[in-house]
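Objective 1.3, modelling of assemblies. Example input:
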Amino acid sequence: MVRLERSLWQAPWMQTAAGLVSLMAFLPVGFIVWVAWQTGWEVSASLIFRPRVGELLWNTVLLLFFAVPASMVLAVALAWLTERSDLPCARIWAWLCVAPLAVPAFVHSYAWVTLIPGFEGPFAGVLISVLAYFPFLYLPVAAMLRRLDPALEDAAASLGFSSRRIFLRVVLPQLRLALCGGALLVGLHLLAEYGLYVFVRYDTFTTAIVDQFQSTFNGPAATMLAGVLVACCLGLLAIEAAARGNGRYSRVGSGAPRNATRVRLGRLTIPCLLLMALTAILSLGVPLLTIGRWLLIGGSAIWHIHAIGLALAQTIVLAVLGGLLTTMMAIPMGWLSNRAPGKLQRALEGTNYIVGSLPGVVVALALVTITVRVALPLYQTMTTILLAYALMFLPRALVSLRASIAQAPVELEHAAASLGRSPARALWATTIRLAAPGAAAGMAMSSLGIMNELPATQMLAPNGTRTLAMGFWALSGELDYAAAAPYALVMVLISLPFTWLLHAQSKRMAGR
Amino acid sequence: MSFLELKNVKRRYGAVAALDGIDLEVTAGSRTAIVGPSGCGKTTLLRLIAGFEAPDEGVVAMDGWALADGKASVPAYRRGIGVVMQDGALFPHLTVAENIGFGLSRKDPGRGNVIINLAHTIGLDNEILSRRPHQLSGGQQQRVALARAMAMKPKLMLLDEPFSALDTGLRGTMRKAVEQLLEAARITTILVTHDQAEALSFADQVAVMRNGKFLQVGKPRDLYMKPTDRMVAQFLGDTIVFSASIADGFAQTPLGRLPVDVAGTRENVRLMLRPEQVTLQPALQGNSPETASGKILGMISDVEFAGATSTVAVKLLNYQNASGCEAPLVLKGPGIEARSIGDLVQILVRGTAHVFE
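Predicted structure (tokens):
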């Protein structure tokens, strides 16, 4: 019979959950402040202001200063060629521009170092960084180029602009958001990267923190280095926010844009193809060639099927569970930012964003110290490592989830309710159904990150855990490069489908 | 006896009172339109009736059952009230047939037939049933949304500006079609709109809303011809307003001695005419204002031709008293009446003038 009941919708469940997630996300930063305060100002200062830190800072700045702009130039050139020129086989080249993401950065570096012994130092660091990370810039720039309204370029041409000036004055400014976002992503990855720089013997804060941790466990020295690293990340965020500006770049007016016309390359076709081929050879050819060569040298002796199978199984379990947890933790935030946007939601999202940009090694260091000092039973357990993954990869899951919840306006839930579905069933039939693909994509992205994660896994995983990345690392650390090759191959093979997914997703986002 | 009843319904959002004491009675099988400018609270009212939100205070009752009493409220999914939203809100992941059948039980063997019959009723072909919402035109989407809501056999249907997203030409046709469908199915209907012409032509009962309150509720003709205040009068159409004194059912106005709709003698009241009550007739150029005693003459001071209609401004000639009618009269007439600036016209008034209480 008809019964009056108080609406459950008003209860702030989602707000509470999102608040809790954000509080957890604050653990790493809170931990650094806490250690600094406990250590006392003088000791902290002496640990921060010393020549070693200056050296690391110089290395970091040098790396960012060369690798990020180089990646930007390369990405814009490749994206323009694949999206806006009549380059032959553009679709294949586009895929080859994304594929390097399937090769973990430390595998890139392993390939170069074992191919050219003695390939070390700043130049090697910058080159491999660019090759491993430029797809993070290529993806958003290519998506943006595809989405640009050619009517704007026509308008500029009718105002007497040459094609070169149109590119500089009309196209490039519209790429600003994509370039800023991509450059930030690359910059943060460079700060967080560990394995790549160990191979080429280039010290950064992350490698120094891991060294420090391995020699003195969790002394304040490591924590203070982490503090400087966090400051670098915040600096990057601030630079990006300033560079992004607050201009409006969306299309004015209605109607679907026409498809852009492609520019004829003419005599430049051959040089452009050479640039494409060179990039593909350096970023894909070298790793694949090296892995192949080591596999040949090793022969069947290096295929320890049992060990590799175990590592694969462990990796998959960690990746799936971690991806699931990450996505679940992202749901309250994703829901809030669509259904109840406001000051609270913006503040929470801001914290998650900042914390998500912290390197894994900082998160790991924080969780090691906290579990050892406060909750010892949790030290080196599944709970802790999964929590660390969730904190690190929350923004990845959130981005996909938010976009897909936006595809499901609340009116649909209301329509379902007016057609007799109870709130839970209405939610299931509309919002969840519509958001599921996005949530799955977010989960896949988090899982991919977890699979190739190295420093945090090493510091936090339960005893006896040996993921593919850890196995690879241990073997190559013993200079048994041939035995490491199967691990590298398996990692590349599992990562490939995810990379394909990422490529398809960026295309679809720009598609309509 | 009323089918739907709202008593002193209030709803606040922070400091803003979206609904500030709404009373409404709707008889079974009737059509009610709630009309008001955007932001007046009409959509909030609809959402309260549908059950998407609960009121802060007040009672909503349907068929003798309380749907909401203060914050306690029957949730939307148990109300059995059909809703058609502004943009249709079709489920993008389902086909047209699945959208229409969304509210029907999957176990019902007659489900397929019901869907086909509904599609026919709303004038859609079978082949459209397997399409997805994004492949339909705006008008088709609204028809599907209506069919989806009708599949539930609701006793009450709520329409939230369902025609506003459509082209002008399509809007009228759709409105008529929906009206006939709901009439045939004997479904009580409430339409929310900001378009007064739509409200007046669609409904048996119109409620004019502003700042969370009903200014006036009544039959369309009464509301249009006998509005209680100027706000209602002006919202529903153009007005000619002047002040005058009335005696014995007549008022002395700039447009002559006019019958009014109240008896008695009163000083200085506000009178309203609708411009379409005023007609113009050509007056001979030779007639000077003095010789045409008894006739009200005017001179065309501006003409704006717009095809079917033409708008003219008329300056009154033989009425010098500035009692609220100094500005020229602005009248719409058929476009075929070619008038030019400077023409002399005689002004005739049909019907009675309305006195604001």
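Residues 168-184 of chain B form the longest helix (17 residues).
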